[in-house]
Amino acid sequence: MRRIARPNRLPLALAVLALLAGCGDDRPPLFAADAAGGLPKQADPARGRALIAERGCIACHVVPGVSAPPSRVGPRLDNMGRQAYVAGLLPNTPDNLVRWLVDPPAINPRTAMPDTGLQRSQAEDIAAFLLGPATRGSAP
Ligand code: HEC
Q1: In a domain, 6, yes or no
Q2: What is the torsion angle, in degrees rounded to the nearest 10, for the CA atoms of residue 55, residue 59, residue 61 and residue 65?
Q3: CATH assignment of the domain containing 52
Q4: Whose CA is nearest to atom 5 of ligand 1?
Q5: 33 confidence band (pLDDT: 50, 70, 90)
Q6: For the chain, what is the domain count?
Q7: Is residue 48 part of a domain?
């Protein structure tokens, strides 16, 4: 009788375990959520929230804490501190989020998000709001 050679399954099992271990929702945020790390001190989340309402962001985005009829043109802007990438392209650091907000087509010429004419300081206010506790809700 011929023996069928069995591959050693231990490495595979270990790899699966390692993957499963990474699936929990108890991952820490990608960067410290307190200060929206790296933004200038004067970045003001309350001003950012007001700008989101004034600049028409809510025509395209659902934003926790900013009431508007729901829109699904763009993604929900909740819990951004836990997100890995901005617009699927830039590693989600405060600075990259600001870069995106100031001029999305400069980052991705094919994006549907227009340049909304924000000054850098205004984008920093908005980033402080989006990365802060107000948008965190109960989502993982
Ligand atoms: C005309 C619709 C439209 C408007 C107005 C708009 N956006 Fe967007 N936004 C989008 C779309 C579509 C995307 C997805 C872009 C992509 O992935 O290329 C996006 C992406 C984003 C992202 C990245 C989200 C993610 O999950 O990575 C942020 C942050 C963002 N928008 C913030 C804003 C803010 C703040 C404003 C107002 C100043 C605004 N947007 C105005 C359509 C819009």
Answers
A1: no
A2: 70
A3: 2.60.40.420
A4: 57
A5: very low
A6: 1
A7: yes
Among the listed residues 96, 71, 73, the one whose alpha carbon sits nearest the alpha carbon of residue 84:
96
Output the ligand 1 site: residues, CB below 6 A. Answer: 52, 55-57, 59-61, 73-75, 77, 83, 86-88, 100-101, 108, 111-114, 116, 118, 126, 130
Please tell me the distance between residue 61's alpha carbon and the centre of ligand 1 in angstroms: 7
| 10 is a domain residue | no
Q: Chain-wide mean pLDDT for the chain? A: 85
Is there a domain that residue 94 lies in?
A: yes
In 50-94, the DSSP E strands lie at: 85-86, 90-91
Band of the pLDDT at 106, cuts 50, 70, 90?
very high
The pLDDT of residue 53: 96
What is the SS3 assignment for 63?
strand
Residue 76 CA to ligand 1 center (angstroms) comes to 9
Q: How far apart are CA 66 and CA 86, in angstroms?
A: 20
Token reading at 119: 């000054």
